[in-house]
């Protein structure tokens, strides 16, 4: 990862964000999914009776919060899967590859450009949810939610880490996929292991202890950092330009 | 029209600007197939290619290709569809790896480690403009200027747009431009980095004659600035007009040289004689003239004479015709175009395949 040129990475990020701004449909589409995943926590919090036992209420609230972890996993998968194969199909990849940009810089720039709106939207949705609960929910239920300090903190911490996982899996698919539709369909698969994990958390098979959270976060961080290198290695200019893998002499 | 700075400003400072179509190298007219590995590469060579081969599995894109291009030269790369031209450009531009052989691009050996360094010194305009349609012309160029590490690129972008006559469309979205204008934006993009070598893959493809002429003027202007241009084109008249030397590729390199030399190499000199009425006894008339080797007639009153030296043959042929009382309409030297050279070589290949 040595020798990365920050100017190149920034240039890719700036261009991508500008492109998203011009394609409002992307931002709208990205916003729909969080709204869907917001439904469960909202319904849970606003429909839960204040007369429920404190321990049961804590459990209900904490499970509903897990839905917020699905948002950063699902939201970036389509964009990440589009990132490389999309440029290829548009015909913009070849001119880009003729510049001095290195593949690591390109991958990092693309990943960061997907990460920024993903994390921003996830935090925005989460913030709005907390504000709505504080203002409009039954005070007993709201108090139960704000008692989940460690879980709330974990949500803040895990959002970028989970998004990183989803983005890198999506990009790994994108650098090898033959066309956009295939990449985007496969990109959804990135979320399968994590959603499986959330289900295990929700049904109580895995207990969300502090140690589990730390181990999971550390594991995700290592995977995310290594994934940048792995995807950069998978980025084969020849395959991307010609569609054929180089035959070695 | 302001263009990338003088050659001395390029990385490494190479070459001297040359007059259009001036000879930039000597002894470069050999048919490469006779001499696959050229020696004599010098510091003045922008490109040195030795026995370069690229295969995709069982399919050979190009094989055993060798040539040199001097700094400041406009080098035309011709060949039929599928001949390997674009693959050669991609290989020299470090987009794909050669299967075997060696090359030096802008003084840097072509290998995976040197890819980024080579790409800093060259610029490639692929056949497809590859612009971001939702970005304006300026935003497209700003992006690429950043990728070339250019800071405060505003003046460069302005110069590049001025060069392709697109300054007034700087704020237009690329998606709103015609195909020709997009091609010009792509050309402007290649000028941003002051490249030592400019690879242009079919730069006038899809352009109307006026726009194509503007591109020709631009290439001429770049030539005067000393920029080395590697021009891939199907337009033979374009190559003849713009290129100091041309190479004809059909998987293997068929020939390299100045258009004039290639014509001399492939075609014998000939005189074309046109008379009002067919000659009574042309065989007797043309025989015995020292410089005339043979003659044939395609149509009545039209004769083509193969000659060793037109300036020696023409006066004597004229005297004989006048002496025979022929009504002479014209005596001229037969002109072979680059197209004739191209067709001659490519037809040979087609015939070889048929056999």
Provide a quick synopsis of the model.
The complex is a heterodimer of chains A (249) and B (355). Chain A has helices at 6-22, 24-47, 54-74, 77-90, 93-97, 103-136, 139-146, 149-176, 180-188, 191-202, 210-234, 237-242.
- Global geometry of chain B: elongated
Would you identify the regions of chain B where 5 or more consecutive residues have pLDDT less than 50? 1-40
Number of strands of chain A: 0
**Rg result of chain B:** 24 Å
Biggest interface, chains and residues, is: A-B, 33 and 39 residues
Main sheet overview of chain A: none
Which regions of chain A are unreliable across 5 or more consecutive residues at pLDDT < 50?
A: none
How many angstroms separate the termini of chain A? 28 Å
Q: Topology as H/E string of chain B?
A: EEEHEEHEHHHEHEHEEHEHEEHEH
What would your notes on this structure say?
The complex is a heterodimer of chains A (249) and B (355). Helices cover 82% and strands 0% of the residues of chain A. Chain A has helices at 6-22, 24-47, 54-74, 77-90, 93-97, 103-136, 139-146, 149-176, 180-188, 191-202, 210-234, 237-242. Chain A contains twelve helices and no strands. The longest helix of chain A is centred in the middle third of the chain and has 34 residues, at 103-136. Chain A has one domain. Chain A is mostly helical. By secondary structure, chain B is an alpha/beta fold. Chain B has two domains: 7-258, P-loop containing nucleotide triphosphate hydrolases (Rossmann fold); 268-335, Alpha-Beta Plaits, CATH 3.30.70. Helices cover 33% and strands 25% of the residues of chain B. Chain B is built from eleven helices and 14 strands. In chain B, strands 6-7-8-3-9-10 form a six-stranded mixed sheet, with helices on both faces. In chain B, strands 2-1-4-5 form a four-stranded antiparallel sheet, with helices on one face. Chain B has a four-stranded antiparallel sheet with strand order 12-13-11-14, with helices on one face. In chain B, strand 1 (45-56) and strand 2 form a beta hairpin. In chain B, helix 8 packs across helix 11. The longest helix of chain B is centred in the C-terminal third of the chain and has 17 residues, at 338-354. Chain B is elongated. Chain B starts with 44 loop residues before the first strand and ends with a helix. The model of chain B is unreliable at 1-40 (pLDDT under 50). The interface between A and B is large, with 33 and 39 residues.
């Amino acid at each position: 990862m040595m020798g990365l040129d920050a100017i190149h990475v920034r240039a890719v990020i700036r261009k991508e964000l500008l492109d998203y701004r011009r394609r409002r449909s992307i931002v709208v589409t990205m916003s729909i999914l969080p709204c869907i995943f917001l439904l469960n926590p909202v319904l849970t919090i606003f429909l839960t009776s204040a007369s429920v036992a404190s321990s049961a209420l804590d459990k209900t609230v904490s499970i509903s919060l897990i839905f917020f972890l699905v948002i950063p996993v699902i939201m970036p998968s389509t964009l990440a899967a589009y990132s490389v194969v999309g440029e290829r199909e548009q015909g913009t990849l070849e001119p880009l590859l003729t510049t001095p940009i290195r593949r690591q810089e390109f991958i990092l720039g693309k990943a960061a450009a997907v990460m920024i709106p993903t994390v921003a939207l996830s935090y925005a949705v989460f913030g709005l949810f907390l504000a709505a609960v504080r203002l409009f929910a039954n005070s007993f239920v709201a108090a139960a939610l704000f008692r989940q300090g460690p879980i709330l903190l974990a949500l803040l911490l895990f959002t970028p880490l989970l998004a990183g996982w989803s983005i890198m899996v999506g990009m790994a698919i994108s650098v090898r996929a033959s066309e956009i539709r295939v990449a985007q369909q496969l990109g959804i698969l990135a979320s399968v292991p994590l959603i499986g994990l959330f289900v295990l958390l929700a049904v109580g098979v895995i207990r969300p202890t502090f140690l589990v959270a730390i181990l999971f976060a550390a594991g995700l961080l290592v995977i995310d950092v290594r994934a940048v290198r792995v995807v950069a290695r998978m980025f084969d200019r020849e395959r991307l330009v010609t569609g054929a893998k180089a035959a070695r002499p | 029209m302001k263009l990338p700075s003088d050659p001395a400003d390029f990385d490494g400072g190479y070459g001297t600007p040359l007059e259009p179509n001036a000879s930039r190298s000597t002894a470069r007219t050999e048919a490469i197939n006779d001499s696959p590995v050229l020696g004599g590469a010098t510091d003045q060579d922008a490109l040195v290619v030795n026995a370069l081969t690229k295969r995709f599995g069982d399919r050979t894109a190009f094989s055993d290709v060798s040539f040199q291009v001097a700094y400041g030269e406009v080098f035309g790369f011709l060949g039929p569809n599928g001949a390997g031209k674009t693959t050669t450009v991609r290989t020299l531009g470090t987009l794909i790896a050669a299967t075997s052989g060696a090359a030096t691009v802008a003084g840097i050996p072509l290998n995976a480690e040197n890819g980024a360094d080579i790409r800093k010194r060259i610029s490639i305009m692929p056949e497809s403009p590859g612009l971001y349609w939702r970005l304006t012309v300026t935003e497209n160029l700003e992006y690429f200027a950043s990728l070339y590490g250019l800071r405060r690129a505003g003046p460069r972008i302005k110069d590049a747009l001025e060069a392709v006559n697109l300054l007034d469309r700087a704020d237009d979205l690329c998606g709103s431009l015609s195909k020709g204008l997009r091609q010009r934006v792509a050309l402007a993009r290649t000028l941003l980095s002051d490249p030592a070598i400019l690879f242009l893959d079919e730069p006038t493809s899809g352009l109307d004659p006026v726009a194509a002429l503007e591109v020709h003027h631009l290439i001429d202007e770049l030539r005067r600035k000393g920029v080395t241009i590697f021009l891939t084109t199907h337009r033979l008249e374009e190559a003849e007009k713009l290129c100091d030397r041309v190479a004809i590729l059909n998987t293997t390199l068929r020939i390299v040289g100045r258009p004039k030399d290639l014509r001399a190499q492939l075609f014998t000199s000939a005189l074309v004689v046109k008379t009002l009425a067919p000659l009574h006894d042309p065989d007797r008339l043309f025989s015995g003239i020292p410089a005339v080797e043979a003659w044939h007639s395609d149509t009545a009153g039209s004769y083509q004479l193969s000659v060793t030296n037109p300036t020696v043959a023409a006066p004597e042929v004229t005297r004989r015709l006048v002496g025979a009382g022929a009504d002479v309409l014209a005596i001229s030297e037969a002109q072979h175009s680059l197209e004739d050279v191209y067709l001659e070589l490519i037809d040979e290949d087609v015939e070889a395949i048929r056999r």
